Amino acid sequence: MMIDLNADLAEGHGAWRMGDDAAMLALVSSANIACGFHAGDPAIMDRMVRLALAGGVEIGAHVGFPDLQGFGRRVMHIAPTELDAMIIYQLGALHGIARAAGHRMTHMSLHGALGNMAAADALMADHLMRAVASFDRDLIVVSSTSRAIEAAAARHGLRLVTTFLADRAYDDDGLLVPRSTPGSVIHAPEAVLERVRLMLTDGIVIAQSGKALATRPGSILLHGDTAGAASLAALIRREIEAIGCSIVPVSRQAG
Amino acid sequence: MMIDLNADLAEGHGAWRMGDDAAMLALVSSANIACGFHAGDPAIMDRMVRLALAGGVEIGAHVGFPDLQGFGRRVMHIAPTELDAMIIYQLGALHGIARAAGHRMTHMSLHGALGNMAAADALMADHLMRAVASFDRDLIVVSSTSRAIEAAAARHGLRLVTTFLADRAYDDDGLLVPRSTPGSVIHAPEAVLERVRLMLTDGIVIAQSGKALATRPGSILLHGDTAGAASLAALIRREIEAIGCSIVPVSRQAG
Amino acid sequence: MMIDLNADLAEGHGAWRMGDDAAMLALVSSANIACGFHAGDPAIMDRMVRLALAGGVEIGAHVGFPDLQGFGRRVMHIAPTELDAMIIYQLGALHGIARAAGHRMTHMSLHGALGNMAAADALMADHLMRAVASFDRDLIVVSSTSRAIEAAAARHGLRLVTTFLADRAYDDDGLLVPRSTPGSVIHAPEAVLERVRLMLTDGIVIAQSGKALATRPGSILLHGDTAGAASLAALIRREIEAIGCSIVPVSRQAG
Amino acid sequence: MMIDLNADLAEGHGAWRMGDDAAMLALVSSANIACGFHAGDPAIMDRMVRLALAGGVEIGAHVGFPDLQGFGRRVMHIAPTELDAMIIYQLGALHGIARAAGHRMTHMSLHGALGNMAAADALMADHLMRAVASFDRDLIVVSSTSRAIEAAAARHGLRLVTTFLADRAYDDDGLLVPRSTPGSVIHAPEAVLERVRLMLTDGIVIAQSGKALATRPGSILLHGDTAGAASLAALIRREIEAIGCSIVPVSRQAG
Lengths: 255, 255, 255, 255
What we know:
homotetramer, alpha/beta, TIM Barrel, 8 helices, 40% helix
């Protein structure tokens, strides 16, 4: 039994920091690195890539909308060819920094509004996945549950790994309940750990309705942007180890 | 006898354009493509890369300071490790866009204040060339005459091709006379063409002092940012062809 | 009979230019000046304000989304309080530059996607007009036909002047036909001039359906972003003068 | 005996925060608010202005270079007319936000590299102070000791208040010892408090050499960008109150 632990890191910009990157890096097997559009900058990316390399952590590009002020969380309508070029630009930028540092980019994920929009829009998911594949068909797409993204990744020959959000409620279709819905975020640590256990041992997540859904994600997304979140992340990791599950980055899991 | 013709292209941003990219692309064998820091953006880069591929033109990264408003022409003091990461980020971004489009990045050059500062600062030239080599030791560095950059490129195992500015005065050391000096820009088309002829046929450039200097650049930089400049560029190309010199991109010239 | 002629000016950024500001400034009585968010920058704003002052042209703030790369034409979803602060920031910035130059800002208008969204969204129009009024209740709002903006301006005690787009088709409700609709832009100069004549002399615009609509705009918007547009703008001005109509900026028309 | 306490606040951007603004706001009589160029954004400025108004704290514009990534700490060479327009733009922007919120901007100060460069460059100080005066001759300039800025402010009719940095070493000319010099920052709280006492009661600061210098600053700059700094700021305030000195914003001190 193996699972990847990933987190969104390097989300500062210039002199600003977001979350405790050092603490989170010690917990994860994969780091999703912001590429300078919604967060991050070349120096922050470079430092994170080198820390990840030193810590044996795999790296992926966390690509987003060009909106530092909005942290990539604002809906933006960008023409497909422009948006595709932006995604490839970000993939290339992190690839370059990884290459110069002697590391290797193994995966990618979509951040914020870009991810939410693509998850709900088959046409958008399709051109984004085609863009990713045009850059590197060996990149693994890490995504929360989305039929649109899963279908698009498959269509363009990309391997997709589903990531599980242990502290978020799911609906009966296995999709994340939007943050705006009451009860969408699960705060009690014990409840979160129980969900991790159930998912790992029985392959089950209990939807908000109480329905048990079968699930086999390859990864768990840990949040580190608040102090409490980072402690919870450490608890989750200990729980996984206690269960006897191996923490293995996505690229070293069987495809 | 062979020479490369290169120009700085894709220097628009969003809805803004700079110079006549289409006209210039038809004249050159190599395009130096702005990478979004001082000019350019992902969509403009993508279009230029595809046009260059279709036109049989080689592409290189024209890297600059992160200063769109100043067009990369303002002196900025940036810590070496940050600046190196910025350069690698830009190289990676264009590499990514080229890869997705099926083209290949063969060279790089330094833009504006970044180039001027590096040309006059051996330490800065050294860390920049080390950064370029860390990304790809096969990239060719295209530069106007600078002992600092030449020495640094050699030290880090990078091939350097000198580019000749036919419309700019040179001093007795073979360095460009700064733009602020009277007479530094040669406006008369016939004088510019004569300099091209002399350089190609006799390997000589006449310095501002009248002194004849030996020179063997591998490339000529054409300007296209004004209407007059684009017509002059066309004249230069015709002159080179009339001489019987082959126009060959730097990567296909013997190293 | 009096009418204002206005145009969107100062839409360059850094070294980039958009349209022929000098030609247009000589034709208009009011300049809508981009405030650095979708276009413009402090130096461009300052030059335009001083040229307008010298030319006896009134100035207004042309406020937009924070999106230079998209020229403010991309839909962005920004929280009302944030967006309001952005609008006030832009108004204040131009006010400051005008004050330092000895000029006075008399009006404001909404650019691109911001304007289109507000024109169709009564809630958004309301908070934007409230924001404008909180900064300066004496600013005149210049807008193409929009019931949402008109009602919101009235509610917040702001004077609104409707601007007429002579080269754009109108629907039966007096609203602009979207650019994406065939026939929405009227290219033939004679047809445009005829519309100007009809509007000025009879207070009528012929909708796309052929229906005659009563209209009494206080201003005509001239486009200057293409060479053809600038010549057409000159023709329109001559036509207005030939009719005997006075060209008077909005602040000097009776409210 | 009266003294102003000021701090640099609102130095976040978008989702990023810098320092504990709420804690510092409770300690100061004046807030220097970043204006979106080196830090800050319209929404952050708006929130800070409203909090300052509610807390009875005066506000000033903390203007800087256009360099979010470098936090305004990087040297940039910007042409005087462009830089002046940038300063006025920032002053106007904060003025606008204050006006809309019902508050009033009373002062301004120069941030980071902009301040350091102006403090050492009489020509630059002169055109910057001329720019400030052109916007509003009633703005008070708050500055650490600099003959260049003091002379320029006087020349352009601006009142200047010197701010004292209790945790920084001074040289024999009363200028700040650069941060790069060993011993330039005084870390021991008791030493800092002793300097505050000596300055307030005897009008003396002990230079790094041991020499006693006469000094009568109108303000003390409190740092709040680290947890330790915020606690020290609270200690300084308590010390001042214990001495019996009144904490009064610069605009309410006799000029």
